[in-house]
Amino acid sequence: MLEIERKYLIQSDHWQREGIKAKHEIQQAYLFQEEDKSLRIRLKNNQAFLTIKMGKGISRHEFEYEIPMEEALQMIKAAHLKSLQKTRYEILVDAHVWEVDVFHGKHEGLLLAEIELSSEVESFKKPDWIGEEVTNDPRYLNANLFKAL
User: Fold this and answer.
1) 8, 30, 89, 140: which one is catalytic?
2) Number of domains, the chain
3) Which of 6, 18, 83, 98 is most buried by a 10 A CB count?
4) Is the separation of the CB atoms in 116 and 4 below 8 Å?
5) What global pTM score does this model have?
C-alpha cells in the first residue's frame, strides 16, 4: 500500500476549536529503522499493530498488520525498547481528516499535523493553525523522534 502524507508544524492552538472526530492514545517503538525503512510496533488504545514503512518523502510504502496486544507488549519488553508517547486527535477539515499528534515525555510540547492524500498533487485546505511544512525534514519522522528518546 502506498501512503501519501504531508506533515506540518502547528502554529497555534486553534486546532482545539475544530470538531475533534476522535482521540487516540498511542505508544510506539521501533524494532528496526534506517533512513528509508522501518519496522514499528504501535499500541493504539486497546489495539496493537506491526507496521513496515519503506521509502522517503511524501509517498512511502506502508504495510500494517494488527497483532495481539500481548505479543506487541512482549516484543517491546524482549527488545528492551523505549516508547514514543503521543495523543492523536483526528480533525475533519472540509473533506480531509487531519491528524494532530501531541507528544509526551521527552518530546513534550511538540505538536505535528499530518494529512493523508490520494495523490502527491491533490489540493486541500490548510487550516489557519497549520505552520511550516516538515514532510521532508527527517527530524520530524517518528522513527527519528524515537531514536532521540
Assistant:
1) 30
2) 1
3) 98
4) yes
5) 0.94
